[in-house]
Design brief:
- The complex is a heterotetramer, with one copy of chain A (232 residues), one copy of chain B (738 residues) and two copies of chain C (80 residues).
- Chain A is an alpha/beta fold and 232 residues long.
- Chain A is built from five helices and eleven strands, in the order βαββαβαββββαβββα.
- Chain A has a single domain, classed as Class I glutamine amidotransferase (GATase) domain (Rossmann fold, 3-Layer(aba) Sandwich).
- The longest helix of chain B is centred in the last third of the chain and has 20 residues.
- With 80 residues, chain C is α+β, with helices and mostly antiparallel strands.
- Chain C has one domain: Phosphoribosylformylglycinamidine synthase subunit PurS (Mth169, Chain: A), CATH 3.30.1280.10.
- Classes of the chains: A alpha/beta (232), B alpha+beta (738), C alpha+beta (80).
- Chains in contact: A-B, A-C, A-D, B-C, B-D, C-D.
- Strand 2 of chain C pairs antiparallel with strand 2 of chain D, so a sheet runs across the interface.
- The structure holds adenosine-5'-diphosphate and magnesium ion.
- The site of adenosine-5'-diphosphate has 19 residues of chain B, from strand 3, strand 17 and strand 18.
Chain lengths: 232, 738, 80, 80
């Protein structure tokens, strides 16, 4: 797997992400500065890491979405290449219109850092094939603006086509209004594009990959991607 | 001769916070009347915040050396060797006054400032902590201050990308008019790549890097040393706004630049901005400095030399670069999109010369500006000793378990989860012990080695007996580090007091510093950095804060897998009490919260016993014999056990108090040098034998069991009920209508 | 030439901040408030001297950056 | 009765957001922009029917909550 992690001014979880990728495939990813216009040759996975690109000023991800490298990321996605956006990366993907909707301020307004439970909604994707459908996993969140909203048509489309990757759930894997920590529509924590080669999610799987983190549940995502790319 | 535009009147001198005799010193130093710019520079350099004029004589008594200490006080942050070519770099600093005026920005820029101190030395920050003190919860200002300060710390630290892993929050009416915001940052550097502010070489370029200079915080350093009054509203426009995004870029640019070898000296612009940083660079290197202010990037047109020299705009650095590497440096600055400019050069004149468009606005001797700053040995009186309270003279107001449940929901003992869930404490992937325990643990770059860190002080003890309180603050930090299995290696302090011009306050300061020094010496726990914040009082009410010498402790862990946490891990483990029996209720939480009394002597601290008990506990943890560990502090034994039970979701069966010991003294006494351990039954004999060999008192007080906390003869309480009380207070307080 | 852009949430889009402020206002005893929506304002200085051209360019800025038209709408006012 | 409150940073106070937006705009090729300052707008519905009273109450809200008068100033407009 040849992975590239895009570094924007203000990204701050790129090292966490690089560590997880390296742990999953043995080789470290390429770190690509946002001002580049092309991805390293042979890149098959692009990751937009968490952080506060451009300080989250204006709107989270809005300024980063206009970075030079983003055209190359779009092209990569159009070709069917894998793109993962976590937290700020998810926000950037929405602002770049590679994913529908937008992430707004948490319902409780404040920043929240804590472990949350997620229900895996499908194992039929290169990102989640290592999980069982309906499986409950525990990974931390750390965001102030993770409340996913979209117009009702978009929400319906996302649901009808099974594009929800993860939903916030309770300890026993049940999803109900209120199991999301941030007020996200339909408790959506992670979302695919129509072709399921682009995934955005608010929680941080890269911070749940070893016993020291108190959970290793996030590692499945990295193993899934590595497996999917090895099979491809 | 310098054109002197403004006539310096006694009023102007006074408005700069200079006393008449201090102004005379300046006249003597210059041999003429100062210009306005020179007066401004001097007032910034000689105020309490920068010159430590009231505290220096006492700070000198602190132990600052040790085999691991690379840089003690005097640099931007302390530097301590942790082996393998690595060093830990850390310091704590106050932002009390700005935070009271504008809580969000005040706290945010406090975090920004201390982070800069750490990365200026070449370290990458790996953790932040904070020690916060607010007025009584029922005071009308408290809630907004808490909300603003917590949001500001979160807003800055989270965006910058450093985990905020620990700290403390207390409430007391003595802080009603003056909250305390002390921020600590910890970083990691290679021992062979530590940077300091000492400039070397004549004719080298002085480079300005970072955000543009605005009119922010002009006179901020003077404000920080000013007593609060109703009139402090007028000082409001001086509030600085933090830009964590700019700071993050500054961090990455500085570290990248340092790696190129281009940096000869570097100094952040903190209090008194360009003035302090430039003077320090020159003075340390025995050089002169020439600054050409028209080259300084400014945010607003028409800024005067006075304003540029005193601005406290944030996120700025000053450095001396190797001229041969200027081009390399330029590329780094451009990559990170930061403003930079060559604003002057080093000279061999020993003078501090400030010009703008060719006109000279200041020309002062640089060395003397620092060395000749006023130094006071202010009069002080010792605090009156309080009598020790005999436990049986105190009538319990309620039963033991009711007392516990009430205490667990009091402002000072309730869970701080509401606070730390606002902080990103997992970023970096190296936080292996989260907030909520005795000390946070952060691994070093994913390896086995880790650092433990904590902040501690018990102001009610310091008020009751400054010397014992100072000792206790250090002892508690040391104990918290030992409780997780770390070897305490060094500390930083943040000494928050009222006005040093009041002898009784100065007495508190002197007592606490002596206590800190004594404890640091006995516990091999040197002071490597620190900060003093004086004049923390409200002019209107005349109330000073409680003496609050916050201690930030750092401990070293060779293998983070050999550590302990407070949480009970399983039923059927033996619960041991290490150290003496509870006896002491003077100045305790029990007395204050349940009997509304704040009297009595605080618990005495026997440092030899501390050391013996702590060393024994640390060795047990290192041998893998401890399932859970917690020190006994605020609230005493039963509160410690309850916290362990709640953290693990596992209850306990405890024996009743021994014959002849009053129940409230046994369960709620705050006697020092004590720990509670959970130990597997199979290891019990080994553990007891080891402790006996170490000469450490130990007794089994019960065992872990079920989902309730049960005490023989006293009854039982479900963990669910206890959890509700413990977790409930903070969210309820913050969500209540103003 | 100075211009002011006001960006507000479209009707129907939830506004957690507005709601929180409404709650805080009623907590402070301001009982007569029946709804708060929070938006953004940008005060720009542009080098254009022709108001029509200025407005057109600022409109383009809004579409590309200043507003997220998925949830926000904007108005532009030339202040002279 | 509807009212609009506009809260802006006082002159001279650093505006990191405005700075970042200005940079982004010029990166997008909008070269004619000479400064951006970001502020907040609050659209309120109040039960008052007398504009003077409404304005007075909203002024009090600004002082206590909506604006941080240490660094911000505000204007109130009654929209009817
Ligand atoms: N209470 C103290 N104990 C030990 N060292 C102190 C104390 N107060 C200040 N120092 C040291 O004095 C120096 C100056 O402190 P300070 O003015 O806060 O630094 P800076 O200007 O870098 O923020 C630092 O090296 C600091 O560590
Ligand atoms: Mg410093």
């Amino acid at each position: 797997m040849k992975a590239a992690v895009i570094v924007f001014p203000g990204s701050n979880r790129e090292r966490d992400m690089a560590r997880a990728l390296k742990q999953a495939v043995g080789t470290p990813p390429a770190m690509v500065w946002h001002a580049e216009t092309a991805l390293p040759a042979g890149t098959d996975l692009v990751v937009l890491p968490g952080g506060f690109s451009y300080g989250d000023y204006l709107r989270c991800g809005a300024i980063a979405a206009l970075s030079p490298i983003m055209s190359a990321v779009s092209e990569h996605a159009k070709r069917g290449g894998l793109v993962l956006g976590v937290c700020n990366g998810f926000q950037i993907l929405c602002e770049a219109r590679l994913l529908p909707g937008v992430l707004v301020r948490n319902a409780g307004v404040g920043f929240l850092c804590k472990p949350v439970h997620l229900r895996v909604e499908t194992s039929a994707s290169p990102f989640t094939r290592g999980y069982r459908r309906g499986e409950r996993i525990t990974v931390p969140i750390a965001h102030g603006e993770g409340n996913w909203v979209a117009d009702s048509e978009t929400v319906a489309k996302v649901e009808d086509r099974g594009l929800v990757a993860f939903r916030y759930c309770d300890e026993r894997g049940r999803v109900s209004p209120g199991t999301s920590p941030n007020g996200a529509t339909n408790e959506i924590a992670g979302l695919f594009n129509a072709k399921k080669n682009v995934l955005g999610l608010m929680p941080h799987p890269e911070n749940a990959i070893e016993p020291a983190h108190g959970s290793t549940d996030g590692f499945g995502l990295f193993l899934s991607m590595a497996g999917a790319l090895a099979d491809a | 001769m310098i054109p002197n535009d403004t006539i310096i009147t006694p009023e102007i001198v006074a408005s700069h916070g200079l006393k008449p005799d201090e102004y005379d010193r300046l006249l003597a130093l210059l041999g003429r009347t100062p210009t306005m710019t020179e007066l401004g520079i001097t007032s910034a350099m000689w105020n309490e915040h920068c010159s430590y004029k009231s505290s220096r004589v006492h700070l000198k008594t602190l132990p600052t050396k040790g085999p691991r200490v690379i840089h003690g006080p005097g640099e931007n942050a302390g530097v301590v060797d942790i082996g393998d070519g690595m060093a830990v770099v850390f310091k704590m600093e106050s932002h009390n006054h700005p935070s009271y005026i504008e809580p969000y920005q005040g706290a945010a820029t406090g975090v920004g400032g201390i982070l800069r101190d750490v990365f200026t030395m070449g370290a990458r920050p790996i953790a932040c902590l904070n020690a916060l003190r607010f007025g009584a919860p029922e005071h009308p200002k408290t809630r907004r201050l808490v909300a603003g300060v917590v949001a500001g710390i979160a807003g800055y630290g989270n965006a910058f990308g450093v985990p905020t892993v620990g700290g403390e929050v207390n409430f007391h009416s003595a802080y009603d008019g003056n909250c305390l915001v002390n921020a600590m940052a910890v970083g990691i550097a290679r021992t062979n790549a530590i940077f300091t502010s000492e400039a070397t070489g004549v004719g080298r370029p002085i480079v300005y890097l970072g955000s543009k200079t605005g009119r922010d915080g002009i006179h901020g350093a003077t404000m920080a040393s000013d007593v609060f009054s109703e009139g402090s509203d007028e000082k409001r426009p001086t509030v600085q706004v933090g830009d964590p995004f700019a700071e993050k870029l500054l961090l990455e640019a500085c570290l990248e630049l340092m790696a190129t070898g281009a940096v000869i000296a570097i100094q952040d612009m903190g209090a008194a901005g360009l003035t302090c940083s430039a003077v320090e660079m020159g003075a340390k290197g025995g050089l002169g400095v020439q600054l050409d202010l028209e080259k300084v990037p400014t945010r607003e047109p028409g800024m005067t030399p006075y304003e540029i020299m005193l601005s406290e705009s944030q996120e700025r650095m000053l450095m001396v670069l190797d001229p041969a590497k200027e081009a390399v440096a330029r590329d780094v600055f451009i990559k990170w999109g930061l403003d930079f400019a060559v604003v002057g050069h080093t000279t061999d004149t020993g003078r501090f010369v400030i010009s703008m468009h060719g006109d000279v606005y200041a020309d002062m001797p640089i060395q003397e500006l620092g060395d000749q700053s006023p130094l006071y040995n202010r009069p002080w009186v010792a605090s009156v000793k309080r009598p020790t309270l005999a436990a049986d003279s105190i009538k319990p107001p309620c039963g033991t378990l009711e007392a516990l449940q009430r205490l667990m929901a009091t402002p000072d003992l309730a869970s701080r989860r509401w606070v730390w869930e606002h902080y990103d404490h997992v970023i970096g992937g190296d936080t292996v012990q989260l907030p909520g325990g005795d000390a946070a643990i952060v691994r070093i770059e994913g390896g086995a080695k880790a650092l433990a860190m904590t902040t501690d002080v018990t102001p009610r003890y310091c008020f009751a007996d400054p010397f014992e309180g100072g000792k206790q603050a250090v002892a508690e930090a040391w104990r918290n580090l030992s409780s997780v299995g770390a070897l305490p290696i060094a500390l930083t302090d943040n000494l928050n007091f009222g006005s040093p011009e009041r002898p009784e306050i100065m007495g508190q300061f002197v007592g606490c510093v002596r206590g800190i020094g004594e404890a640091a010496r006995v516990l091999d726990f040197p002071v490597v950095s620190g900060n003093v914040s004086l004049y923390n009082e409200n002019k209107v009410t005349g109330n000073a804060i409680l003496p609050t010498p916050a201690i930030g402790g750092v401990g070293l862990i060779e293998d983070w897998r050999k550590t302990a946490s407070v949480a009970f891990k399983a039923s059927g483990h033996a619960i041991l009490l290490i150290g003496g029996e509870g006896s002491h209720l003077g100045a305790s939480i029990y007395l204050r919260e349940l009997l509304m009394r704040e009297d009595g002597a605080p618990p005495p601290v026997d440092l030899t016993v501390e050391k013996r008990n702590g060393d024994a506990v640390r060795h047990l943890i290192g041998s893998g014999l401890v399932k859970a560990c917690h020190d006994v502090s605020d609230g005493g034994l039963l509160v410690a056990v309850a916290e362990m039970a709640l953290a693990g979701g596992i209850g306990a069966k405890l024996k009743a108090e021994p014959k002849g010991v009053p129940a409230h003294a046994w369960f709620f006494g705050e006697d020092q040098a004590r720990y509670v351990l959970a130990v597997a039954k199979d290891d019990l004999e080994t553990v007891m034998a080891r402790l006996r060999d170490a000469g450490t008192p130990v007794q089994q007080i019960g065992e872990t069991a079920g989902r309730t906390l049960t005490i023989s003869r006293h009854g039982s309480i479900s963990l669910g009920d206890l959890l509700k009380s413990h977790e409930g207070w903070f969210p309820a307080f913050m969500n209540a209508a103003n | 030439m100075r211009a002011r852009v006001v960006v507000t949430l479209k009707a129907g889009v939830l506004d957690p901040q507005g709601k929180a402020i409404e709650g805080a206002l009623s907590g402070l005893g301001f009982s007569g408030v029946d709804g708060v929506r929070q938006g953004k304002v940008f005060d720009l200085v542009t080098r254009h001297t022709d108001p029509t051209k200025a407005k057109a360019e600022i409109g383009a800025m809004c579409e590309r950056l200043l507003a997220n038209t998925v949830i926000e709408s904007y108005t532009i006012e030339i202040m002279g």
